[in-house]
Amino acid sequence: MLKLTYTEGSFYLECLSLSLEEWVAKRAILSLRIGKPFCLEPSTASFLLPVDVPGVEKLRMEARRVDGEIIDLSGCDAEYLEVTLRGSWLSDGTEDNVGVFVTMMSDRMEFFLHKLWQESQVCTSVLSE
């Protein structure tokens, strides 16, 4: 399962070994126990990957071949590729853009996408130094 966490100023992607159902059940129980609202709805989430990260072309091929209904790739500009995923958005029900997005794809695709995202973070931090 891929988990994308959106905060006011950042975004973080994780690859988890739990099934989507297990993770949602645990979050629902946590919300009930702490008395916080819990809103889960079908949605999409997007993030950018630099086109010069090694493996982006392989991602394009794999996305078309394996998980075309869950992942969509489109070029933003000469420097970035937009990755759009279909899955579920979990939030406290407010209208802000803070929450968690979860989706499931093949284990191979999840791992590969997570690896590319991690590599893009390393490239971004090196460029900003």
Automatic annotation (TrEMBL):
It comes from the Bacteria. This is Alr0857 family protein.
